[in-house]
Specification:
mainly alpha; 4 helices; 3 strands; 46% helix
């Protein structure tokens, strides 16, 4: 399936200008996977407005919000574990607020389906095996979304 990856190499920060540009693309689904680049405050401030920009312009296009993968050393380093948990909580809160306010065609991918410690080459970035895990996780959630279009 044709895919446009707007990977920003650490700069995906849910800026509203990027959401506005994304709405120019007639997509089957928008996948928002910015949490690894953000902190909990940024997610709390930006996630809902970002999704609302997409939704306003494209009311029927599916949107998938993706949690931050877990750091490989998080089981040993409290700071890393806390950061992951706080990012996930902020994104999930935004997701729930959006759902409660009536935003349709919105899905969520939890980090427990994403690469784990042994699938990360440096505790953060996926190895080849980690990329397979990512692909499988995305396929599991995207296939039903795309089949319903």
């Amino acid at each position: 399936m044709p895919t446009i990856n707007l990977g920003f190499s650490g700069n995906a920060l849910m800026h509203p200008e990027i959401a506005e540009l994304m709405t120019e693309l007639e997509a089957s689904v928008y996948v928002v996977d910015s949490s690894p680049n953000m902190n909990p405050q940024q997610i709390s401030e930006r996630a809902e407005p970002f999704v609302r920009i997409l939704r306003e312009a494209r009311p029927d296009t599916a949107i998938l919000l993706v949690e931050d993968r877990r750091y490989g050393d998080g089981q040993f380093v409290q700071f890393r574990r806390d950061r992951n948990a706080q990012n996930a909580a902020a994104l999930h809160a935004a997701y729930m607020n959006l759902r409660t306010s009536g935003v349709k065609h919105l899905s969520y991918l939890k980090a427990d389906r994403l690469p784990q410690a042994e699938e990360l080459v440096d505790g953060s970035h996926p190895s080849d095996l980690g990329m397979v895990t990512y692909a499988n996780a995305y396929e599991k959630v995207l296939r039903p979304i795309l089949n319903n279009r």
